[in-house]
Predict the structure of Sulfite oxidase.
Amino acid sequence: MQTEAALQRGRNDPGLENPTRRSLLIGSAGAMAAVSLLGFIPLAKGEEPKTLPDYAAWKERNALILHSANTMETKRGAIGNGVITASDRLFVRNNLPAIPESETENPDAWEVHIEGVQNPRTLTVGELKKMGVTTTASVLQCSGNGRAFFPHGASGTQWSVGAAGCVMWTGVPLKDVVEALGGAVAGAKYITSTGGESLPEGIDPKTIVVERSVPTRAMETALLAWEMNDEPLSNTHGGPLRMVVPGYYGVNNVKYVKNIAFTENETDAKIQASGYRIRDVGDKGAPDQPSMWEMNVKSWVTAPLETGSSGRNMIYGVALGGTVQLEKVEVSVDGGKTWKQARFLGPDLGPYAWRPFVLAADLSPGEHRIVSRATDIEGNSQPEGRTDNERGYGHNGWKDHGVTVAIS
Amino acid sequence: MQTEAALQRGRNDPGLENPTRRSLLIGSAGAMAAVSLLGFIPLAKGEEPKTLPDYAAWKERNALILHSANTMETKRGAIGNGVITASDRLFVRNNLPAIPESETENPDAWEVHIEGVQNPRTLTVGELKKMGVTTTASVLQCSGNGRAFFPHGASGTQWSVGAAGCVMWTGVPLKDVVEALGGAVAGAKYITSTGGESLPEGIDPKTIVVERSVPTRAMETALLAWEMNDEPLSNTHGGPLRMVVPGYYGVNNVKYVKNIAFTENETDAKIQASGYRIRDVGDKGAPDQPSMWEMNVKSWVTAPLETGSSGRNMIYGVALGGTVQLEKVEVSVDGGKTWKQARFLGPDLGPYAWRPFVLAADLSPGEHRIVSRATDIEGNSQPEGRTDNERGYGHNGWKDHGVTVAIS
């Protein structure tokens, strides 16, 4: 009965994107127990909780769409035109419930074990803080941002554009830590990070643990962050310590990071082996499919969204290049027939940050389809369409991301 | 009696820096009435109000030193190491009480009159928003920041280092507005901005109005801002519309701006004619003395502040160049005998922004005097000492700004 109800929830509560349903699909008594252990609030399809969950109570409720207790999206109209997303407006997406605040009361005591290096060691945040520091502006974006636009009904949270934000991360460069421990072992090809969330009993940990591998090329820019936007990193967003891989999709930025291993192979945890893989609609996930690592070039309009007055309108939006610096953003007010280059707004915070843009356009009365198209310095441009894929990942097609505005 | 009590308050509540005492010094019945009209809370020397005034109730109380209801300083330990100061930690310094929130409910309807241009016009914020937009990171700093370090007891709020912050301003470039109105009249040498605060009856408006002139060279970078840190500009900080002159001392960034005039001469308002002038101790203010316009190069340490453990310490601070890009910051842990170059932390937001810096230093047990010294790309460096001046303006001497830290 409960399983049936869960299945009815369909697209809002699916697979790996939400351990509740994932557990329910396992269908064992252990998994059922896990549901309550995990403590998620189940929602009927289309239902939105009225209040923020405790661990995110400090968020700006009016800026967010609450998909579930562990998935909250920034409203398109609340993204603003700033180079940095205010913490209380930033989206939330937790694969497992956040660790309790009680575990973060003494953040400097949080421990992370580093292995696959010459001198493996357990380090506290307090020790990391003396090993080096850097501040990097980087876009945090869920792999499934834009999923709502897939017509096949990709399972998972139905994010539109707001499972993304640009924040400042402060922490120690991972390479400084690795260097201090004698360097990575020979043959290491991946950096494998493990989250510190409590796992429910009765389930194979590999099926539920948040453990992600990224290629060692990410070491040049990765950091172990203890601050976000110049404040101690909250447990809502992975504090006391989070692995931050600038330009990589959100899932690789492992929260409450407890273990970092330099490994020859990717982890066989489900979230890596079959989860977060680009595959044809209907296919099962497998390790040989492309993993959600570097983000692709993308942009979307943030204003106007619904209505406007004829004459001069300022069209705003944000654009990101993933790991590649942006070159330009073009905007069309006729659904892509003609384009004009927009102007970037505000300071450039580096290749991993997004860039707000603006275009002054004279709009005549009637409906206008406003779309934007970003191009990076390597010449990668957003495609018109989308690459359909089972889980609705990585959508950067400009057509679906546009808005229709009625000008009177 | 009341006047006597006011005089007793001495350094905490003086002259132009605080209209309460200024009015009291006038000594007329009209001025006495003005005190209550202005609505400031009088404070005894050294007394700090417990709670934030209504117009600033959204501020982070624990981050601030409340000098008075219209002067609140960011604690040195709350400055952080971010490129941007969070709005709720930013200092407050109002020459007159903030306009009531009721006047800002429809910010787009706020009007500003532009004169001294070919086609003078009154424009609403709504109209300005369609004329152009820019986002500039800029340090906001009170002319009297550092006043507490002057030994002669300069009158005015006893700011230490926290009457400064770096924020993002979004608004229309002033030059776009002027261009749209046909350009400035011939012979214009100053941009004169007038604040929209209500003035009490019975006082010559020229003695109390916030009206400041800056040289027209500031037009290249000035903007009329309606947002701060990607949010609508609050009345606490001068919203709906504020004149922002990047790199200039705070007073020139006129709040609630109602009138902007291109003029041949500086205004004869007291705040310009005799206020905010660098003059010898004991001298009266006069128009021929240097005005507090462009900020000078400056830096200060933000951590550690009091104690630390021996061994590796990370020394943090912030540095600004006024209108000139910074070249470097050096740090000394022995009171200025030896120096090491610090590293800038985080992205460079442009010449008007501050730059956080960090230096890893090995400290032995005992007392350490930690000081910092910034240099801009034109070779201007912070002096060791200070230029004593009547009102305690513009202090950028590195010696006074240091901290003494006990290392155990």
Q: What stands out?
A: Residues 87-273 of chain A form a domain with the Sulfite Oxidase; Chain A, domain 2 fold (CATH 3.90.420.10). Residues 24 and 35 of chain A are 7 Å apart (CA to CA).
